[in-house]
Amino acid sequence: MDGKRGLSFYILTGVFILFLIFLYGPTITIAILSFQGPEGGLTFPMRGTSLHWFRDLFAEQAVGDIWGSFRRSLALSMMVMVTTIVLSVMGGLAFRRRFAGSTVLFYVIIASLVIPSILVSLGVGLMFNQLGWNINWYTSAFGAQLTWTLPFGLLIMFAVFNRFDRSFEEAARDQGANPWQVFRHIVLPLIAPSLIGVALFGFTLSYDEFARTLLTAGSRNTLPLEIYGMTTNVTTPVIFALGTLTTVFSFCVIGTFIVFALIWQKRQARRVSDAGKGMV
Amino acid sequence: MSSQDQTAPRASLTSAATPGTEAGKPSLARRILSDGFSSWALALPVTLVLAFFLLAPIALIVVVSFWGSTSFSIYPAFIFDNYEYLLGSQVTYSVFLQTLKFAFLTWAITLVLGFTIAYYLTFHIHSLTWQIVLFLLCTIPFWTSNIIRMISWIPFLGRNGIANQSLMNMGVIDQPLEWLLFSEFSVTLAFVHLYTLFMVVPIFNTMMRIDKSLIAAARDAGANGFQILTNVVIPLCKPGMMIGSIFVVTLVMGDFITVRFMSGSQIANMGRLIQNDISLLAYPGAAATSVVLLITVLIMVAVMLRLVDIRKEL
Amino acid sequence: MTKFTKRNGLSRRTLLKGAAASVTAAGASTLGAPMLWAQNEIVLRQAGTGVSAFNEIAAKAKEDLGITLEITALDSDAVAQRVATQPNSFDIADIEYWICKKVWPIGNLQAMDTSRIANYDKIVGIFRDGKLTPESTIAQGTAPHSVGFVEGVDGREFVNNESGWMTLIPTIYNADTLGIRPDLIGRPINNWSELLNPEFKGKASILDISSIGIMDMAMVCESMGEIQYGDKGNMTREEIDKTIAIFTEAKKAGQFRAFWKTFDESVNLMASGEVVIQSMWSPAITAVRSQGIPCVYQPLEEGYRSWGGGIGLNANLSGAALDAAYEYINWYLSGWVGGFLMRQGYYSAVPETSKDFMSENEWGYWFEGKEATAPIVNPQGVQMEDVGAVRDGGSFYDRMGAVACWNAVMDENQYMVRKWNEFIAA
């Protein structure tokens, strides 16, 4: 457990590598099959290799509208992400003290996390239907997705504020800062790294949400629904090409993130600070 | 009302601080942050969203579960037909058991696997940067649409798939393994694939907070690695394990798409019963099944929450 | 001054409008399209199954008519759901006739005036009086003509004659049978009963869409000699119980590798060799074959299970949008779409207009069941068949003349669905 690397280290490294292979199994399959020849299908055997499906991805599909739904998914995820950040921070601040109904609200938040998504989807769909409202990806689906991303964001913020050192705020207040200034110049910078986490959760959970959008998206599909819809017709390896591009894109994003993290860490190290400790 | 007396001292504290600021102008943001009902005001948006998109829809589901339906429409009523049929059918119980079985299997496997991964990341990887890098490496596959990944299991696990081909090339088997795909095995495998990370994260989170000196103390007292694991690490990780378990169990209980894809539609769980009813426009039936599922999940979570004070553990 | 700018602005706009009109008019004269909607920006939202939701059709409609067609592809259950519960989410519903029987009474669709349909008289008899040729007998099940007409634009009850008000304008239809992998089976298959032959244990599949699956099951049970149905398209509870029991037993014995619900699942199952015999749809066969994998749409002695789709108009459509919708329908039946869809293995409701949009070789192969005189390519331009190939099942009249039953919604539909769910869960 300390510096020396015993047998357990090698065994656990082996387990971890196997776990990674397992995690990447589908990703690798997708990657291989996305290079299918123009006549190839979604399964083995390979019918030659080509970049055909990557080109095809950017051409118009026989059925559906991948890029339209991609744009909608992107817009929706952004909306959900921003709303989640703002509401989670507000909620986090609220829960720094007990208030009437805070316990009830807390359990509602937990309930929001554990209630099966298909129920939310069904419920929201039914409700809009009974109220005679149109369901739309930017109204009903947006709300339905928030019930999934908000609990994550809120729980992260609760954890952050539980371990938040109030002395900085008090110091600022003693210096005469008003509450907004305290929030803007003291609290926000300190919780900023965790907000990246909230943002990441909000975005990812929304971007790939299927069940909650299924009955709430209305006439225009989000990407997961579109992909599902595509399977009702001849589907080609073009969806695998999409998968591969997504993976490459994620590697780039995460690579960039790591580079920034390293730079930030170096800058932090130069300062005399242990602020990073309270962060995780 | 009681919120006011609770926050009263704080209000005086903040008002004492204000005179020094640029002006006495009460901006909206400032008022929200400093007023007596600041907590209430801050919690209001979340409350509204959850009330409208969670509580109201769930309430409606409960109401609709007593409605009647024809083959193409639903009508308000107060009848027990949906429950009568649901609870009177042998299928419901077998499906219910099947759902619990998947939840249990997935829970047990992800718990062991998730704990192992978290343990490895915490105690064998020493730099925070590497911990983050390895963790992020685990998350990348999840950025690709779940539906695409699900479809790709077929060429991975199928008769002519990568798994069978590799095993045959290695000489481990000479006939393709049929049970790799469209079986309980493949469903459980996909669940483990999807949800192990939900177990890793909370366990990792609690593990990182274990005071390393405790472990050193245990070693000094003569404990071996295994004893440290069972007597120090596991007890201290219980909250994380419990939170992870809540995630995994509720996600598996409510799933409908994984079971359908990975079993080749041959196995049903509660989610699929609901989905089938929905697709046939039998909303009251779907609502009744939903209520049963909801109650089950809430009971399970309530039991798990008894074992851990989630508010304290955050 | 204000007056001047205003007039100026106005005149510029009219100028632009005029330019746009003249451009589109030029397009119109070369294409011979009857009317143009570009200036009014008519958008029609069409919700349908992936079967006919092709972007090529939308692009061509834009080009020929100037109508923007927004097509959403869904599975058949989802379309039914949308038509039934979300009337504001679509203008045109592209649904199957059995779905029509289910959703028409809800009142979200309006009937179409056949006098406004130019090619109405040329629509195949199946959709009008139910008879392919005057001598034909009408097959069991929800035959399209039986839910094809109502009394007047708001009629909710189906009528049994050509009333002049059509519920759906037929678009495509086909005769379905079992798909097989001849290379992996290696012997002739002639009966529906082969689906449950223990020889194919673990290598068979059936589709998990109850209304269609139950019909395939009935074809199998009848072929096995286990059940004599009064009417496969309208089974009694006993018949449903017995049918499901036979299949439940087979399922428990491991006969099925999987059930499929979406089109591409059936393609994947067949192409990957997971399954060698299963219920299948024509373009799925085409898709497997264009991967170079042998796959036959096996004609069987007992005949075909058939289905038909059509487009229906949202009850809320009126004015210019309704006119545009009629324009679209007339265009749909005028041949180009028919040719496009027939090249995928479907049939057009007005085959004779499609003929002009297909080569003689294509027409011969797809419609007349003749040997291909040149390679047959799919719509993506990939070669599917060599010279000399003949379509499985032969000509239009051979195939559509041997229909044993139509996809159906039964009186005992709810009971059947419950039994079906039990079968899936068993």
Automatic annotation (TrEMBL), chain A:
GO terms for cellular component: plasma membrane. Residues 70-263 form the ABC transmembrane type-1 domain. Its main location: membrane. The chain crosses the membrane at residues 7-35, 74-95, 104-128, 140-161, 182-205, 238-264. It is a multi-pass membrane protein. It is found in: Cell membrane. Keywords: Cell membrane, Membrane, Transmembrane, Transmembrane helix, Transport. InterPro entries: Bact_Polyamine_Transport (IPR051789), MetI-like (IPR000515), MetI-like_sf (IPR035906). Belongs to the binding-protein-dependent transport system permease family. CysTW subfamily. PANTHER family: PUTRESCINE TRANSPORT SYSTEM PERMEASE PROTEIN POTI. This is ABC transporter permease. It comes from Thetidibacter halocola. The lineage of its organism: Bacteria, Pseudomonadati, Pseudomonadota, Alphaproteobacteria, Rhodobacterales.
From TrEMBL, chain B:
One of its GO terms (cellular component) is plasma membrane. It comes from the Bacteria. Its main location: membrane. Pfam families: BPD_transp_1. It is found in: Cell membrane. The chain crosses the membrane at residues 40-67, 102-121, 133-157, 177-204, 282-308. Residues 1-18 have a biased composition (Polar residues). It is a multi-pass membrane protein. Residues 96-304 form the ABC transmembrane type-1 domain. Coiled coil: none annotated. Residues 1-24 are annotated as: Disordered. Belongs to the binding-protein-dependent transport system permease family. CysTW subfamily. This is ABC transporter permease. It comes from Thetidibacter halocola.
From TrEMBL, chain C:
Transmembrane segments: none annotated. Keywords: Signal. The keyword Isomerase does not apply. Residues 1-25 form the signal peptide. It comes from the Bacteria. The keyword Signal applies. InterPro entries: SBP (IPR006059), TAT_signal (IPR006311). This is Extracellular solute-binding protein.
